[in-house]
Amino acid sequence: MHWMTYVQYSQIGSPFWGFFSGFIWGFFLFILAAWSVIWKGAALWKAARKGHTGWFIALLVINTLGILEILYIYKFSKKSKSAE
Length: 84
What we know:
mainly alpha; 4 helices
């Protein structure tokens, strides 16, 4: 039996599996986008309130799936010891 014939008649080649995998990938991308939007919104809000124009522009332009935003919120937006 040729390998393409096996793929055509296997479960992976069925129309249901194509729909199901598309649904899973779509759901995964939706969750990833929601995660990114939530963190980006929080970081942009904080940068705007503190007047950090450079950070605001960087956060707006650079997409890192929330990593840069989380770093900004918890690390870089804190007041330094000398400012207190």
